[in-house]
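Reopening this one. Same input as before:
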Amino acid sequence: MGVAFHAPHAEDDGLTCPEVGAWAETKHRLLALYDGLFSTGMKNKWDQRVYIDLYAGAGYSRIRGTKTILRGSPIIALTVASSFDKYIFCEESADRLTALKARVKRIAPGASVSFVPGRCDSQIDRICAEIPKGSSNNKVLSLCLVDPFDFGIKFETLRRLSAVFVDFVVLLAIGMDANRNYDHYVDGNSTEIDEALGNTQWRERWKAAGIRRSDFRPFLADEFSMSMESLGYLKTPLDRMKLVRSDDKNLPLYYIALFSRSETALKFWDDVLKYSTDQTAFWD
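Same output, byte for byte:
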């Protein structure tokens, strides 16, 4: 693929290190592949490339029940071969943000990084203000990672960011959650999916479809793609999303999807989906 990647694992540095499931390694490998392709492929086409992480975390995580430590999305993005020109990391947890700052200072001391404390939805004005202003003489392209712990995305936050040139890599955590809370969502007692999709019409479409309850997960993923299309993004069908499953029971956990207005970005994503199944070939 022509892009080098750093090893996915890290050494324990004694700082805060949240636990994650073993399947997180699949996600991190995919992110590293795409970050590298994006940052290198766009380097000479845009004056500034910005990386935004709305749920940045602590920078490292530990696979539950093991001593294996993974480099998190901020550290992955900071260590691509062609560095981004600016990084914006938002994190709600004070402890995790403190750990992230320390790791960033140690690993990428020369990087231009803005840290935004708090929940991304309430801090969206500040996040938008940190993105360099684009002009005819300063073309700015951003890559935004949206990786919440559940299907708690607020579509309005993405709508605000979409006012500038930005691609989104979104983790749609609707696997177990969709099954566990199905009745709660469909009967209208919860507004969580309304807020994640940016509309309330999805219930009528679901009921009119007359399909099986087991199809609720892919239905929601398709609905989210339709919502992104309403913002001018190209269609991302299910076969262009990565479905990540649990290691123990092989249960569907979440989709990872790219949303872009550029066919070039989607071609990069297709390469990632093709090669991300190889667990070792693209790590240096």
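So the earlier flakiness isn't reproducible anymore. For the record, The domain at 9-173+255-275 is CATH 3.40.50.150 (Rossmann fold).
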